[in-house]
Amino acid sequence: MSLSQRSSQKNIPFGKPSGFRILGIGKQEAIKYFFGGNATLAVILIFLIVGFLAYHAWNFLPQYQKSLTLYRLSGQEFTDYASDQLTAQKELSSLASQIPAYELKHRLGALYDLEAVHSDFKNKAQKELIAERKQLQRAKSNLTKHQAKEPPIQADIDAAKRRVTESTANLKKRAVMVLDGIDYSDLENKSLVTDDAYLTDIRASVTANIISGKTSDFIQAIRQTEAEKTAAIQALPHMQQLAKARSMLLAPQKPFNNYLKKYRLIASDNKGQAETHSNAAERKKAQLTKAELATTDQQRKIDLIKAERILTESPDYDKLNHPLYSSLDEHLLVQKTLTQQTKEALAAMPTVSDFEGGKAQERIQKITILGEAFFPLIEAKRKKMESWTHKEPVTIGQALSGFFMGTQWVSNSSWQDFYGVLPLLAGSSLVALVAIAIAVPFAVGGAIYVNRLSSPFEQRWIKPIIEFIGAIPSIVMAFLGVVVVGALIQEHSQNPLVSWIPSFPVEQDKTILTAGILLALMSVPTVFTLAEDALNNVPKAYKEAALALGSTHLQTVLKVILPSCASGIIAAVLLGFGRIIGETMVVLLVMGGRIAIPSSVSDPAHSMTGIMAQEIGEVEQGSLHWSALFMVGLLLFVIALTLNYIAQTTLKRLSKHS
């Protein structure tokens, strides 16, 4: 065998070539095409996914444009400008209504929630005392039956009374045992304020209440004390001032709301006519087709008459919207009243320093901020009403901006559907940022420690445990968040020691923070593994050279190893972010599901993945809602693909060791 033949055979990775071929493809070519086709297959799959999403989202913009056109032609847009004014003012009055409750809760302390705590203890105890309570009820029923007999038999009555006494004693003994095992940590609502000084009295009161069924003396005394202290707090000058300001905010809402009701009804009727006309041509065509296919002359005549009754003539929108144009003077009157009384109410509002409760102070500050923005908003909406015309066409660009910049996601509404992705995008982004901020220090720090500083024994245990987290199903993580994590955050955020943390205390158990913690836990294995791979790619010579020059292990890691693999760690973080933003079950079950732009991590919110999982099974295929969900899916896919591309590009450009 020649040298060239031996060299050629040596370069064949899978052994000696065989003469066996199918359709001209031998074993070597088949293996090559099989393993070498992965990249091509991945590209094909990406194009198929994009094509599938784009195909179903294709009609969204034309459909949404048509929907917004009807919204404008009917005059609904005009009335919504006025509705936005009232909504902004109602937000001020709502905040003013919340302040007294928060201030009372702060000043009264545990006394404010005492009845709720008492009720929770009672509910838990009753679940454990079902058998004893039934036994006592049967004994009482038996006594009543013997007492009702004619003539009554005293011996039977006495025996029944003894059974009642024995059952009562048994229930009391068992109730004391059960209630001794119930503590404040068992409360369903972790945000309730508690005090150990009341614990013994609560247990005794619940026991007495379960046995007698009557309100205990303890609760009656608590109610009286709470009423007296509440009256004293409400009599404080700043609380009286707040009550007066709130009344001033509420006063102009009724006449403004009456104006809105009248003209929203007109706009709603206009919308009905517009929708009827929008599909009249299709309905008439379908009815004529039905007439052509009729089997009898009589049926054909009936179908033709029905077709003639379908009017395809466009409604006179000038005439339909004339009452709305004419309502500007009426609107100006109710607007002036609303503006004037709101201005007086804001001027009468007490200052932040008058209140002691943190939540009350937050709402006073929010009233101040919203109050400053209220009057410019009123003027802006009024100008839009004055310049509004139903004849102005809605463009594709407006439909597109309505999707990307819209702050409302309203589906199946009797008024108007809106598909604004901004609150969903904000929720997804904020929860991903919270998760990555929590996960990166633990994942990257863990990777550095395990890879460079830990002992072989620690490496054998820590790395498999971290990677095992990735095997936990997301639905299990979601259940963990619903049952455990959310309740723990809600409970411990009430501690005064952590009140300095922004957005604490947390009022709900399903929030962005809860979902972020769980997503951080889920993303740790991804970031950890990729960061460790980046550390492994640093040549050993770097470490040996640094140690030879006198650096410590920690100095070597921080000043030599980490800068050398920074690009790999950045890529790991970006890929972890992409993993987080695409998660569904945790955000669907744990984030709270409120469609609004969140103001803090303690707020509930919704996400792009959550809205798709929640609504895709309930919509009609091919409808506007259907297309809107696929638009969200397409946007989510583009975000994930972009993050992946940036991570790979960063890895290539910044890597010093390709």
Give a description of the structure.
This protein has 658 residues and is an all-alpha fold. Among the domains are: 51 residues, no CATH class; 137 residues, no CATH class; 170 residues, MetI-like fold (Orthogonal Bundle), CATH 1.10.3720. The chain contains 28 helices and four strands. The strands form two sheets. The protein has a two-stranded antiparallel ribbon with strand order 1-2. The longest helix has 33 residues. The protein is globular and about 100 Å long. The two termini are 38 Å apart.
In terms of DSSP E residues, the strand content is under 5%
N- and C-termini, Cα separation: 38 Å
Helix content: over 70%
Overall mean confidence score, pLDDT? 88
Note the main sheet: 2 strands, antiparallel
Topology, pairings included?
Blueprint lengths: L2 H8 L10 E2 L2 E2 H10 L1 H20 L2 H14 L2 H33 L5 H15 L1 H18 L6 H27 L18 H14 L4 H18 L2 H14 L2 H26 L1 H13 L4 H13 L7 H10 L1 H21 L9 H30 L8 H10 L3 E2 L7 E2 L2 H32 L2 H14 L4 H19 L19 H25 L3 H9 L4 H12 L1 H16 L3 H6 L17 H8 L8 H31 L4
Antiparallel strand pairs: 1-2, 3-4
Helix pairs in contact: 3-28, 4-18, 5-10, 5-11, 5-12, 5-16, 5-17, 6-9, 7-8, 8-9, 11-16, 12-15, 12-16, 13-14, 16-17, 19-22, 19-25, 20-22, 21-22, 22-25, 23-24, 25-28, 27-28
